[in-house]
Design brief:
Elements (H helix, E strand, L loop, with lengths): L6 E5 L4 H12 L3 E6 L18 E5 L7 H8 L3 E6 L6 H6 L1 H21 L4 E7 L25 H16 L3 E5 L1 E3 L12 H11 L4 E3 L5 E2 L1 E3 H11 L12 E5 L5 E2 H12 L6 E3 L14 H5 L8 H16 L1
Helix pairs in contact: 1-7, 4-5, 6-8, 6-10, 8-10
The structure holds uridine-diphosphate-N-acetylgalactosamine (UD2).
Uridine-diphosphate-N-acetylgalactosamine binds next to α6 and β8.
């Protein structure tokens, strides 16, 4: 199908990953209906495409029923749903488990069912590495999360249950992203990703703070590669151009320790302060790296190295500072 005939619903379009996805879809010639309640998303994330003629924005909560029907009134040829709207803060989910379940599980299941009933071509859900709990052995395969897995937060639990429902239905795909980083990721909350926080501190000449000994490792994947993963999962790119079904890990397979990351960021930002070592964060996973061979077999090939990805982020963070 030509991209100019494709119409996509992107929930969470003012968020970190959702805004990059919406921008990329529009650049390909797709029409995009974006939905966000702006609880954690920001209008500034949509600045690059808000005025695009093929973009329609609804400020709306994803829990409000009738979203697919509403999108179809704007664009009757709606074909693809990318569902990224969510309660995104793990600590918030611990304090507000019911709200988290309502948004991350119930609303996701309803939207998925509506997409299926409407006969849409593809449904792509933002799963998470948080679905794996803390006991999974690395590299982590998709099968490592099962009914008995104890997730560390309502956030992880809700994502797991939604992914499982989607996988069992045979329609749609859940992408379990590992540690995504890149421009537009917030650096202002204490729960922001370590890369944004390090970069921000590095640029301000403040010491980087390392929780524990810094030997914990993560699989950092650039948002641009993640967006390509979403397109592939929806059948918009890839060898067969058929939407995928099931659950797929999205990572790079490379593990980087927090100490290594601190060194890279310090060098890149020219920050010569010694890092500050603080006590370990409660519930912190020691090692997390994706086995993404299942997604690779479907055509996924992340191509941005951490060094290059950090350089892109640095340029962006500098630009924000003016
Ligand atoms: C990620 C997700 C989280 C959840 C979790 C599930 C992000 C931002 N968070 O948490 O939502 O899905 O995975 O496993 O993607 N660290 C420092 N200094 C800092 C900040 C962090 O040492 O200033 C450490 C932190 O203790 C951890 C590592 O860096 O060991 C990564 O922290 P993170 O918050 O970026 O991501 P993570 O994997 O804990």
């Amino acid at each position: 199908m030509e991209d100019s005939r494709i119409a996509c619903l992107v929930t969470g379009c003012a968020g970190f990953i959702g805004s990059h996805l919406a921008e990329r879809l529009l650049a390909r010639g797709c029409s995009v209906i974006g939905v966000d309640n702006l609880a954690t998303g920001h209008r500034r994330n949509m600045a690059a495409f808000a005025e695009h003629p093929d973009f329609t924005f609804f400020e709306r909560d994803v829990c409000a029923p009738g979203l697919v029907a509403k999108a179809r009134t704007v664009c009757p040829r709606l074909s693809h749903v990318f569902h990224l709207a969510a309660v995104v803060s793990v600590p918030y989910s611990v304090d507000h488990p019911r709200h988290t379940m309502a948004v991350n599980l119930d609303a996701s299941v309803s939207l998925h069912e509506a997409a299926r009933e409407a006969g849409l071509r593809a449904f792509v859900f933002a799963g998470s590495a948080a679905e794996y709990g803390e006991t999974a052995t690395v590299p982590i395969v998709e099968g490592a999360a099962g009914p008995d897995t104890v997730q560390q937060s309502p956030y992880g639990r809700a994502k797991f249950l939604a992914s499982a429902r989607i996988a069992a239905s045979g329609f749609g795909v859940s992408l379990r992203c590992f540690n995504v980083y890149g421009p537009r990721q917030s650096a202002s909350s204490p729960y922001s990703g370590v890369i944004s926080l390090f970069m921000e501190r590095g640029l301000c000449g403040r010491p980087l703070t390392i929780f524990g000994d810094g030997g914990q490792t993560r699989d950092f994947v650039a948002v641009s590669d993640v967006v390509e993963g979403y397109l592939l999962a929806a059948g918009l790119t890839g060898p067969t151009e058929t939407p995928l079904a099931g659950i797929f890990n999205v990572g790079t397979g490379h593990s980087t320790s927090i100490l290594e990351l601190a060194r890279l960021v310090a060098k890149l930002t020219g920050n010569d302060r010694e890092p500050e070592f603080l006590s370990s964060r409660q519930g912190d996973i020691r090692h997390s790296v994706a086995d993404f061979s299942k997604f690779a077999a479907a055509g996924f090939s992340p191509n941005l190295s951490l060094e290059k990805g950090l350089a892109i982020l640095l340029d962006w963070q500098r630009l924000q500072k003016g």
